[in-house]
Amino acid sequence: MMTTWWCRISRSVLITLWLGLLMAGAPPAALGGNVLAVYPHFGFSHFKVVMPILNELARRGHNLTVISYVKHPQAEQWPNYEQLLISQPGEDQSSTTINLVPLTEHTPTRSLGTLFREYYSLHSEGQKTCERLYASGHVETVFKRHQTQPYDLLLTEYFNSDCQLALAKLMNLPIIGLSTCALMPYYYDRIDLPDTPSFIQSEFVGFAGALSWDERLVNFIQAKVLKLLYRYHSNRADNALVSRHLGIEVDVDEVARTQTAFIFGNQHYSLMGSRPQSLQFVEVGGVHLTSQAAQELPANIAQFIDQSEVPIIFFSWGSMVRISSIDEDKLAAIVEALERQPLRVIWKWEAEEKPKLDADKFLFVKWAPQLALLCELLQMRPFC
Ligand SMILES: *[C@@H]1O[C@H](CO)[C@@H](O)[C@H](O)[C@H]1NC(C)=O
Question: Would strands 321-322 and 101-102 be described as parallel, antiparallel, or unpaired?
Answer without folding.
Answer: parallel
